[in-house]
Design brief:
mainly alpha; 3 strands; Four Helix Bundle (Hemerythrin (Met), subunit A); globular; about 60% helix
Length: about 170
Amino acid sequence: MKQLRDATVEALQQVQQLVEASDGALYNQPSVHSESGIGRHVRHILDHFLALQHGLDKGSIDYNSRHRDSDIENDPSLALQLINQLCNWFLHPQSSIDERPIKVESEISLKQQQSMQFDSSLSRELCYLINHTVHHVAYAKLVAKELGLSVDNTMGIAPSTASYLRQQGN
């Protein structure tokens, strides 16, 4: 479990680097290709982590519960505070971060509001959050580059791709 918590922190640190690379004016600037700016991707990522955190206390994670248009989406300093809190939560776990069965609720239909509940585990959900974070960091990195920000090219690369690139000597 420690390896998984550490990998989760690595993913959150990429989000932190992205926020730090954007200045206040560009943080919530939308892309010309979509309505989502860096701030919206960051808020979306962090909403999922908050859903996990709150869900562990209840025994059920609801990824539908999001905080769209929240201050995190517009204020990089608030995003950085929350990222630091989440990293500390994973690095210094309390009893709530342990391997046990949990329920996950998620909407499943694009045509109508329809949710289902699934059996899962903390390790499975952390794996999901790592991949979900990498996915959105990749999108936000494209927005950052479009806005002329300097960001690390290794940001937003899936763990398996990073391993492949290391093997290739890149």
